[in-house]
Amino acid sequence: MATSWTLPDHPKLPKGKLVTIIVLDGWGEATADQYNCIHRAETPVMDSLKNGAPEKWTLVKAHGTAVGLPSDDDMGNSEVGHNALGAGRIFAQGAKLVDAALASGKIWEDEGFNYIKESFAEGTLHLIGLLSDGGVHSRLDQVQLLLKGASERGAKRIRLHILTDGRDVLDGSSVGFVETIENDLAQLREKGVDARVASGGGRMYVTMDRYENDWGVVKRGWDAQVLGEAPYKFKSALEAVKTLRAEPKANDQYLPPFVIVDESGKSVGPIVDGDAVVTFNFRADRMVMLAKALEFADFDKFDRVRVPKIKYAGMLQYDGELKLPNKFLVSPPLIERTSGEYLVKNGVRTFACSETVKFGHVTFFWNGNRSGYFDETKEEYIEIPSDSGITFNEQPKMKALEIAEKTRDAILSGKFDQVRINLPNGDMVGHTGDIEATVVACKAADEAVKIVLDAVEKVGGIYLVTADHGNAEDMVKRNKSGQPALDKSGSIQILTSHTLQPVPVAIGGPGLHPGVKFRTDINTPGLANVAATVMNLHGFLAPDDFETTLIEVADK
């Protein structure tokens, strides 16, 4: 059925008001303490929104099922957050997306698999990832389906590089997972496929570091997986895990790296020229560093010794900004009928702006994982180059001022009906773990918001300020009672990741109808509810299948 693009008019809200959307990246709502950089920073503008009219400020969910991720233990991220903000509906992401691609067989037809398949005739297929049924980073059943599907489609030699879990599942469960996968590999060998485990190690000691915390973790994995070198050598993975677990204080998470060797003591599966590699974790954060080592020609984090010419694909694309990896087995959901497309087709002239690290989020991800303009006569997207060659805590103000000034100019130009921007500071600086720099970053973002809101005021417009997920509001790992967690030396453990906290939505501006207020009857409002809200602010009703609007109009 052809899409009807005409949006009905809102019965109470006028058309023609400029609507400005500000996404504060990594800006969640948490208890005020010394590790809450938003609380510690001077943020008079955001404070005034929060402490102003209570019916103009609310919190929405930005993680887990609210953004299409499998469970509410899954923190949100910028890609799924902007998908939800722009799409107005919740689409399967992460593990659910992989499940759907495996169930339909689409995974075997897509570009990623056909790319690695070119290596099957002469080379080895290497699968690297977390061997676990925890469902947080990977799932054993997906690995089993990958093995089956690849072997049925021409993979004659397969090597598995396993990382033991003990974090998302019980410590010690590695033995059972290895027994299961060894049994599967034995069955493949009976069918004439040379399939074996080639290396392994515990996830927290081998490969699965994140946010560039310790490149030594990735190097230990590289040495075992690529070079075939490790301090421990065994004839089988089961022998390896059982022997290493017998050591005092052994733990699945921290098993040392090992390689499987043949009768002559030679590693059975180093990665060499002509091979294919798949990292099968669907969760991104602990695969990005290995992906960089596998894919980047210009790489200086450790000496790779030997860089094989391989065909590499991730289970998913792990970093939308870096386009990393370049090839992936499961594509992000192609989201049709986004709010942006509807509004442009209803005459809403649109301006979008951020700096490089988040430019794709207010354009590509907002528009349903789609590049380019819907109608270049009605849209203008501006990318401000991010600082390069430094870590973001060195320049925590980033390009907030430049983004704000470009946005102010766009608002005052009178050429646009919608202006949307992303201010990346809270997230990108938050990821460095530098608390003082993150405080500076939050202040800079607040100053940028002021410049934009002052322009909105001048033109009689409307604003909506929100965020895509949390980060800067809680910079410390916490124990089960919510107190800061300490490491072995008694120091606090800094949290560099996103959080599970809700994010704010604030509305206002001289153009806002005086009767508009946030509804209180939505069970669990989330980021996907923002799109219908924005459409209402433009004077339209959202399509019926969009998540419901956050606002109502009281008769005054």
Structural description of this entry:
The longest helix is centred in the C-terminal third of the chain and has 25 residues, at 435-459. Helices cover 31% and strands 15% of the residues. The model has no long low-confidence stretch (mean pLDDT 95). Strand 10 (350-355), helix 13 and strand 11 form a beta-alpha-beta unit. The protein is built from 17 helices and 16 strands.
Mind sketching the topology for me?
Layout: E1 19-24, H1 37-40, H2 44-50, E2 57-60, H3 78-87, H4 95-104, H5 106-109, H6 111-117, E3 125-130, H7 140-152, E4 157-164, H8 174-190, E5 194-202, H9 215-225, E6 232-234, H10 237-245, E7 258-260, E8 276-279, H11 288-295, E9 311-314, H12 339-345, E10 350-355, H13 356-365, E11 379-384, H14 400-413, E12 418-423, H15 425-430, H16 435-459, E13 462-467, E14 503-508, E15 516-518, H17 529-537, E16 551-553
Parallel strand pairs: 1-12, 1-13, 3-4, 3-8, 4-5, 6-7, 8-9, 10-11, 10-12
Antiparallel strand pairs: 2-14, 5-7, 13-14, 15-16
Helix pairs in contact: 3-13, 7-8, 8-10, 14-16
Provide keyphrases for this structure.
single chain, 556 residues, alpha/beta, seven-stranded mixed beta sheet, 17 helices, 31% helix, globular
